[in-house]
């Protein structure tokens, strides 16, 4: 077994395992060397390249888990979204969903065929990774829907909210298709051999509570109900900006709650069901601070969490592209040196 899997199941571990969101990406010169030669979508669609990029941060830092190099918008693309990534702008969808007609025209695709390159990358990775567990992932239906309706990144989801409030039947149609496609996608990843799953609901925190229940909790529950997970790989939910709704989130059939940098993670540890592990939550911008300050802040997070079986060190959101990799090494080394022995013995 691995530290990461043990912690995800709230089994006592000798230290906190560590991985970081977006650990495979632009802050690494070895990633940028590939990116200079290939388009982002070409990279995720080529299993050999996706495998190499996934392994880069494992080789460099010895993280306790690898996360598949891919993107949450592959599912939108499989459903017919005309997706591209534009330098300086992020994802752009040329044919956004704006009506019930648009939603019902989406492609009924066999995800196993359209996203076959993902299962091939997982197979390759499993043979390369040895004992390091592999995290598979998908975007939650709400966050993927937000890109499909907005057509690009949005600060306030104005277009999505107009759509959601004025055409709830169209929103329901879109979400229903996303729930089914995402379940097929995650089932494919589980069959291909991932050791855990993380669901990203990046924009869930922009919703009011009733909408959060309707468009975040309800669809995620429907999605989880559709999973075939005979080996019981642990499931993590990361929904940025939603720690106030911990009670709804921890009633889902999940093993790990991912926590953003704003939440008081030790306090959450006291509140939530002790059978649910916590993951997080260093402010990604903390990696811009002087190394002595950074080290102190890492320790400040580790100390209170050492008393609670079921803690996975991570950032509170993805690492930023201009962070110095030496700062990542300092974080990893600090976490690895901080043993729990004195607490458990
Ligand atoms: O974590 C990892 O290392 C695995 C790979 C991964 C990527 N995206 C690679 C990526 C994962 C897990 C994601 C998830 C993802 N993608 C989310 C949810 C997590 C989060 O950060 O909130 C979202 C909202 C997306 C959609 C997306 N993809 C956006 C908004 C962007 C552009 C903004 C940005 O960060 O560049 C992407 C592009 C993207 N996804 C890159 C990478 C490495 C950069 C691509 C490049 O090289 O130009």
What would you call the shape?
Answer: globular
Order of helices and strands: HHHHEHEEHHHEHHHEHEHEHEHEHH
Small molecules in complex: coproporphyrinogen III
Count of runs of 4 or more consecutive helical residues: 17
Low-confidence stretches: none
Read across the widest sheet, the strand sequence of neighbours is 1-4-5-6-7-8-9
Give the quaternary arrangement of the chains.
single chain
Compute the gyration radius: what is it? 19 Å
CATH architectural arrangement? Alpha-Beta Barrel
In brief:
The protein has 345 residues and is of the alpha/beta class. It has helices at residues 3-8, 29-35, 40-45, 47-61, 74-78, 100-104, 111-114, 116-129, 141-150, 158-166, 168-192, 209-225, 246-249, 265-271, 291-305, 325-337, 341-344; strands at residues 66-67, 83-86, 90-93, 134-139, 196-200, 235-238, 256-258, 277-282, 311-315. Strands 1-4-5-6-7-8-9 form a 7-stranded parallel beta sheet.
Report on this structure.
Strands 1-4-5-6-7-8-9 form a seven-stranded parallel beta sheet. The longest helix has 25 residues, at 168-192. The protein has helices at 3-8, 29-35, 40-45, 47-61, 74-78, 100-104, 111-114, 116-129, 141-150, 158-166, 168-192, 209-225, 246-249, 265-271, 291-305, 325-337, 341-344, and strands at residues 66-67, 83-86, 90-93, 134-139, 196-200, 235-238, 256-258, 277-282, 311-315. The protein has 345 residues and is an alpha/beta fold. 48% of the residues lie in helices and 11% in strands. The model has no long low-confidence stretch (mean pLDDT 96). The structure holds coproporphyrinogen III. The site of coproporphyrinogen III has 22 residues, from strand 3.
